[in-house]
């Protein structure tokens, strides 16, 4: 009896996979055999935190169009970026983003990042930008004060080994908390992840990146009603009238809208933007410390030519070039940005992809395309952003995916860059950094965001 049941189960599974393969839109696309039958293959690609590198290896082996699942195709040809991530929104977001939706009153809530509704995305962006514009003077002040705290706390650690990756999170979470609620949370002064939010965030987003590969199999989401209860707590903080959340609360028409906007702000800024700024800050430090010539050139610029943040806005400054190049080499988000091919299909490199096929251009792969970036595409070279002529610079900008593309570009991009410029200027004007041990460099993993494990450095005061 048991044997018969096993045979029956095997036949059912075999039939199901045969039907799935027959209905698959990617059977003629080159790629691993396993990818024909199951999306679990895409989870395997991410295991070990080597997803971006694994995608690069697939394209090296199979070419510019690679099947990565029964209905998933990865593209490495940079010429398709303007098509897949076009400003007309013909290629909508896939269900990968569903697992990142927070819950509100038991139901998944769309955010600027997760929504597949183009009109809704536009409305939410307008609301966020409107409130961000009104809070701009506050943002500048809070960021500068937070950097001053960072510098003061670092002075007490001179000569000691510290994990700069975690300190980047301490600072970013503190400054973001101040921007939202009008007060600091206390990570910097405690020098610790005292409530384990940073650890929890890293863990949850890593799992979410993998679960997003099989969204049809799970209803799991990144957050729950606990986010909403946390949002209500801002009313008990010292000066809630000063933060970004308060500005939105005052602008909302009704209580339900207040709560909905609160969840959106918490998700988009605290749980997303704060982490991305922290990760990028750690990445910039890593790129500088592993490239001494770039480090030396930057500190010379910061300590002799640039006296304040306003001057660092020059797009051709070395500081901006370092930030941009760090994001090119190690994008903060690792999984590909998935889009759904519209019903009229897509032609690329001799292949027809029918409507409904899920496609993506992996950032890690696109940012190493020698047709765009040159033969030294794999090298960290900030000078490329300064020395390039206008046509080359335009080509690079058009293929730069770190902040998204098209109408789905990151709404907090300018704020994030302001934070990064201000923090890097403050730290490197006051301290020299070096690896605590040159024999033990950080381990890099890439699930949802890049993580530098064991990124221990020693700081010394700059001699004036």
Description of the structure:
One of its GO terms (molecular function) is monooxygenase activity. Its cofactor is heme. Belongs to the cytochrome P450 family. Residues 1-24 form the signal peptide. It is built from 20 helices and 14 strands. With 464 residues, the protein is of the alpha+beta class. The protein has a domain at 98-335 and 382-461: Cytochrome P450 (Cytochrome p450). A hairpin with a 2-residue loop joins strand 4 and strand 5.
CATH topology name of the domain at 98-335 and 382-461, in short, is Cytochrome p450
What's the overall average pLDDT, rounded? 82
Basic shape: globular
For the record, give the distance between the C-alpha atoms at the N and C termini, rounded to a whole number.
84 Å
Helical coverage, percent range: 40-55%
Strand order of the largest sheet: 1-2-10-7-3
- Label the structural class: alpha+beta
* Number of β-strand runs: 14
Per DSSP, the total helix count is 20
What CATH architecture label of the domain at 98-335 and 382-461 applies?
Orthogonal Bundle
CATH class of the domain at 98-335 and 382-461 equals: Mainly Alpha
**Main beta sheet:** 5 strands, mixed
The CATH superfamily of the domain at 98-335 and 382-461 is Cytochrome P450
Poorly predicted runs are 223-241
Radius of gyration: 23 Å
Strand residues, percent: 5-15%
